[in-house]
Amino acid sequence: MHKKKIIAFAGSNSKQSINKKLVVLASKQLSNADVAVLDLNDFDLPLYGIDEENENGYPEAAQRFNELLNNSDGIILSLAEHNGAYSVAFKNIFDWVSRIDKLVWKNKPMLLMSTAPGGRGGASVMEIALGKFPRMGADIIANFSLPFFNDNYSETGITDKEINIEFLKGIYNFEKALQK
User: Fold this and answer.
1) Which pLDDT belongs to residue 1?
2) Which tens digits make up the pLDDT trace of 149-165?
3) Locate the NADPH-dependent FMN reductase-like domain: which residues (predicted)?
4) Handedness of CA 62, 40, 79, 125 (dihedral sign)
């Protein structure tokens, strides 16, 4: 069986992103996958606007990101929450790619996550994504939100046993969907 190509990234441009740490942790749990962990900082894009699109077309970075999604077998995404919604960095790339292809997520299996330092673990942004992403081609196999990141995360795993079981169950279901 060939290894599945997974695109994994955080919906953040923070160099110390806790969501990127969660994505890396999830990626390490996969047994038969080649995972490319992307950094939104590597996709330099102008702020999306219809005038920008009409005058200059689709930026190369947006086209490259779209191709990475096209060529993947699955997606792991952990969303940062800024003021109860997506970070600007994520929203911008999401907007650009949606102009190239309305089905941004290409009907690929997705493990959707979020985390935050507080007790809600990015629940507001997760709720937005769960409502929006399926209409944009996301096949959300599992979603997972990690509350109190600083208390529940270590590089070797989720420290709270019950939360870790939920995390590993989501990864298991994602891997199972990749085999179909």
Assistant:
1) 63
2) 999 999 899 999 999 99
3) 5-138
4) negative
pLDDT of amino acid 180:
85
Range of the domain at 48: 4-178
The CATH code of the domain that includes 169 is 3.40.50.360
Nearest 5°: phi and psi at 68? Answer: -60, -40
Other CB atoms within a 10 A radius of the CB of residue 25 amount to 20
Question: Mind listing the pLDDT tens digit for each residue in 112-135?
Answer: 999 999 999 999 999 999 999 999
Query: What Å distances lie between residue 50 and 17, 46, 98, 172, CA to CA?
Result: 30, 11, 12, 41
CA distances from 71 to 16, 36, 56, 173 (A): 27, 11, 25, 21
Please count the structural domains in the chain.
1
Distance CA 26, CA 23 (A): 5
